[in-house]
Amino acid sequence: MGRIGLQLRATLENITRLRAEGEDFRWYLKLKCGNCGEVSEKWQYLRLMDSAPLKGGRGSATMVQKCKLCSRESSIDILSQTIKPYNTEDSEKFKTIVEFECRGLEPVDFQPQDWNDYDEKTKESVGIYEVTHKFVKC
């Protein structure tokens, strides 16, 4: 499967930069088994701080799991050096914000959230709206 990038498009209101902060940031995904096509029913999250050993001592990955349907063990890894912020100038355009190394697991859905608030200091509303995404091969 190789590398798959998550592209985000959103409308930013009075926000200059949106980014995944820290090793405990949770990327909520639905994952598909590359062997049988089974898609996870529940949202699963990946964090940089998580690491699981690969079978046979071949290193580690962010997530290693066995498919409930076909029992094949697969993995997915967050490529930390690919995490990029989504900036004001990116507003309303698709931009790759992270890449995953996929070995038998493929992300098929991402759970973003629209967000809005009020900035007391500037007396302006701030928000992230119309969030959409797509996955691309890198």
Main sheet specs = 6 strands, antiparallel
CA-based gyration radius: 17 Å
Which residue ranges are poorly predicted, with pLDDT under 50 across at least 5 consecutive positions? Answer: none
Distance between the termini: 10 Å
| Class derived from helix and strand content | mainly beta
Shape: elongated
How would you describe the overall organization of this protein?
This protein is mainly beta. Helices cover 0% and strands 54% of the residues. It contains no helices and 13 strands. A hairpin with a 4-residue loop joins β12 (115-119) and β13 (124-137). The mean pLDDT is 94.
Helix and strand arrangement:
Blueprint: E1 2-13, E2 17-18, E3 27-33, E4 44-46, E5 52-53, E6 60-61, E7 63-66, E8 73-78, E9 86-87, E10 95-103, E11 105-110, E12 115-119, E13 124-137
Antiparallel strand pairs: 1-10, 1-13, 2-9, 3-4, 3-11, 5-6, 7-8, 8-10, 12-13
Main attributes?
13 strands; six-stranded antiparallel beta sheet; three-stranded antiparallel beta sheet; 54% strand; 138 residues; mainly beta
Task: Explain briefly what this protein structure is.
The chain has strands at 2-13, 17-18, 27-33, 44-46, 52-53, 60-61, 63-66, 73-78, 86-87, 95-103, 105-110, 115-119, 124-137. The protein has 138 residues and is mainly beta.
